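note to self — DONT lose this again. spent like an hour looking for the file last time. sequence + predicted structure for the chain T wanted, 126 res
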Amino acid sequence: MCEKIRCSWAGDLQIYVEYHDQEWGRPVHEDNKLFEMLILEGMQAGLSWITVLKKRKAFREAFDCFDPVKVSLYDEEKIQELLANEGIIRNRLKVTAAVANGKAFLKVQEKYGSFDKFIWGYVNYT
């Protein structure tokens, strides 16, 4: 049996190995998955990706499975709830950016039919 070759950054942490083998570098065309990555990448700014990966399950629960409609409707009460959630990255600017990104995401979907069509249009849908 051949041993799988991985990028050196994957190291031997199981969470990184799984991310490398199952997600990294693979095209994504599902809008909710694209929204999840948009939110997580925003949360990662200034931090290591492993920090976000370790909190991913908590993010999924806290942000209603990354449903852009629900996230776009978050009010100050929900933002306060998120800022008190020790399972996620509790940065007000990042949390409010997620809400704003939910609203912008929905506008893109409305205009282009899907976020997938919009984003992949920049590379001729390949």
